[in-house]
Design a protein that fits this description.
Oligomer: single chain
Number of domains: 1
CATH topology: Metallo-beta-lactamase, Chain A
Strand content: 15-25%
Distance between the termini: 16 Å
Shape: globular
CATH class: Alpha Beta
CATH architecture: 4-Layer Sandwich
Number of strands: 13
Strand order of the largest sheet: 6-7-8-9-10-11-12
């Protein structure tokens, strides 16, 4: 099985790596952009949560309960998720992990990064995923731009950066384009836009700014429900 990615709208991604299916921020219930409900989504092996706002933690616990998937989150977020019904044996590393830490699950290395945002409990984070074939994806979570993105770009060869670009609660298109430059990302896909009226309703600013600030970074255009082949970047 070759690697692929499905965008379920907002910051909700399904990533299929050989031997492991990962969901990040599985917000289905209440997500007007999602084309399927969590009950009809593919069964994950691993669920990652960037922070405990409802439009990110979403249906994480329900997916893990139904499918027996492990859940990864920052220390401090695991307790509230267990209070929602997450079984202790499904917590990745038992108590979660923390910024800078790396855990390997079914051939996928997951490195937790910082994010500059707020959270209902624990710290907001992002993730760098190194898939079984070496393809590397950065999911920034909800964040503003921060200078340490350059360090992550030096440490990891980021093939695809998933960057919030909706403004108001996160980076806007201009900041997201600068983030792609700092990360030295080979390609960038905007997220956290268009879901709600307060957010930017298109990605024109991001695409325009990316061409100026990071001209070697490929802009990836997707709509919710579409699948992206990796590493070919063909959208279906």
């Amino acid at each position: 099985m070759s690697a692929s990615l499905v965008w379920h709208g907002h910051s909700n991604f399904q990533i299929d790596s050989p031997g492991c299916r990962i969901f990040i921020d599985p917000f289905f219930t209440g997500n007007p952009a999602a084309r399927v409900g969590w009950q009809d989504a593919a069964a994950p092996d691993l669920v990652l949560v960037t922070h405990l706002h409802g439009d990110h933690a979403g249906d994480a616990v329900a997916l893990c309960q139904k499918n027996g998937a492990k859940l990864g989150a920052v220390v401090g977020a695991i307790g509230p998720l267990q209070e929602q019904g997450l079984p202790a044996e499904l917590c990745l590393n038992g108590i979660g992990f923390n910024i800078g830490g790396t855990l390997v699950e079914k051939g996928v290395a997951v490195t937790m990064t910082e994010a500059f945002h707020t959270s209902d409990s624990g710290a907001p984070v992002g993730y760098i995923l190194t898939l079984a074939d070496g393809f590397t994806i950065y999911h920034a979570g909800d964040t503003g731009i921060f200078a340490n993105m350059e360090l992550w770009g030096e440490l990891y060869s980021i093939d695809l950066a998933l960057l919030p670009a909706g403004g108001v609660f996160t980076m806007d298109g201009r900041q997201a384009a600068m983030a792609a430059r700092l990360l030295k990302a080979k390609a960038a896909l905007p997220m956290h836009w268009g879901t709600f009226p307060a957010l930017a309703q298109d990605t024109a600013e991001f695409e325009r700014e990316l061409a100026v600030r990071a001209p070697t970074c490929r802009f990836v255009r997707m709509l919710p429900g579409q699948r992206l082949d990796l590493p070919g970047f063909t959208v279906h």
